[in-house]
Amino acid sequence: MSDECAAVLKQYAAAWGITQSEALYESMRHHIHCHAKCCKSTKQILENQLIALDKRVDKPCYGFGCRACVHQTACRIGLYDGTWEMAERYKHLLTGDVHP
C-alpha cells in the first residue's frame, strides 16, 4: 500500500471511530461476499470455511452506507428487510449525493 493510501486509511478509520483493521475487514468482507454471488470459486471458499453469505448481500444498499445506517445492527443479523436510512447523527456529513 502506498504511503498516500495508508494515510487515507488511517484518517478514514479515525473519522469513523474504528480501527484500520476494521475498515479493511468490512471492505474485504463486502467485496468477497458480493463476489461469491456470481463466482463459484469464491462461494466455495466461503463454504469451505463454513461462512454463510452475508444477509445483506442481495440488498442494493449493502456496502459503505451500512456504517451510517440507522438499521445497521438489525440488518446485519437479518431482522430488517428494508433499505438504507441514514442515522440522524451522520446527516451533517452529507454532500448532497445521498446514495450508498
Compact summary:
The chain is mostly helical and 100 residues long. The mean pLDDT is 92. Helix content is 45%, strand content 0%.
Using brief descriptors, characterize the structure shown.
100 residues, mainly alpha, 2 domains, 45% helix, globular
Descriptive report:
There is one protein chain. This protein is mainly α and 100 residues long. It folds into two domains: 25-54, no CATH class; 55-100, no CATH class. The chain is 45% helix and 0% strand. It contains four helices and no strands. It has helices spanning 3-16, 20-36, 40-48, 72-76. The radius of gyration is 15 Å and the shape is globular.
Structural class: mainly alpha
Helix content: 40-55%
Tell me the overall shape.
globular
Number of beta strands: 0
In round numbers, the mean pLDDT is 92
Radius of gyration: 15 Å
Alpha carbon gap, first and last residue: 25 Å
Any idea how many domains? 2
Compile the SSE list and pairings:
Blueprint: H1 3-16, H2 20-36, H3 40-48, H4 72-76
Helix pairs in contact: 1-2, 2-3
